[in-house]
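$ run holo --ligand "alpha-D-galactopyranose" --emit tokens
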Amino acid sequence: MNPQRKLLVVLVLLLTAVVAHAQATITKTSFGKTSADENVDLYTLRNVNGVEAKIANYGGIVVSLKVPDRNGKFDDVVLGFKDFEGYLKNDPYFGALIGRYGNRIAKGRFTLNGVEYKLAVNNGENHLHGGIKGFDKVVWTGSENKTKAGPAVVLTYLSKDGEEGYPGNLQVRVVYTLTNNNELKIDYSATTDKDTVINLTHHSYFNLAGEGNGDILNHLLTINANRFVPTDAGSIPTGELRSVAGTPFDFLKPTAIGARINQDDEQLKSGNGYDHTFVINGRPGTLRLAATASEPASGRVMQVWTTEPGVQFYTGNFLNGTLTGKSGKVYQRRFGFCLETQHFPDSPNHPSFPTTTLKKGATYKSTTIYKFSHKR
Ligand code: GLA
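-- output --
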């Protein structure tokens, strides 16, 4: 082949690669079967920049999320298991949708319209993350949607009246969109036929150095919150919204997650590290920046935007080296962190907190965006 022809061939190949790369795609494959023989699908979403998310209709679990570092190298930045079987007993809630109620409800009890409801108790004497079989452990109905913003997967689930003790048939819809701006956008909505309570969230564990690549203590974190929600020994809010000023909870300026995590602080001790809701500054209901995390070596940056009043910052304190991740690396303590956007824990028992009551006929709506970029 003469050199000119060779050059032409190389150019054509390059161009084909660029065009193929620049197309947003969504595909569906089988992920496995539940013990009740329900089929579970895995959706692979790819945006025009080659960012890729794999999402299962079991638990709405984000199984992997590959984003570039400062050199264009893609790594999977969420913790997870190698195959579906790993998720059947997903104790740490890796990547899952959480409902009906994210975080705890004290003693699994609350009163609404004069009626006391008793929920499943699955965390000491308390109710955690929707109970024994929360939204993280059910099969949702999935469908694909190619939107202008990017590929999306629509998940719906009908939570029946009385499920895990909650009142009302709750029809839930969650849309995950992988936008062409490198955002994983989550739009939640729900309606009920009887007054109920609701607090949906998402429970990915992030490690911006890549899953399994060490702990997250060097990540720099900013949380746009002047106050946080102190808790008692059972991680139930005391009711106070405390100023972060002068405490290890002040993340108003970028600070390493590990800088103060072992300080002799009563809240850090009872939480085993950070496991607290921060009260996001600004008006709930409007999309605002809740937090920014960055990892110095890769340069990866993640911003979290939300309409929720709070964000639960959890530092993977209960990971203990007993779980092996998808690429064979063992997950040690603090190998991932969560930023779970939500209402405050135990709100149904704290009338002073923003309400989590969803009235019959009303529509619950909430949006959270995890936006990825990198520093030069
Ligand atoms: C939340 C809770 C934690 C823990 C994790 C999952 O962040 O607040 O206490 O349950 O989920 O292990």
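-- notes --
Residues 3-21 form the longest helix (19 residues).
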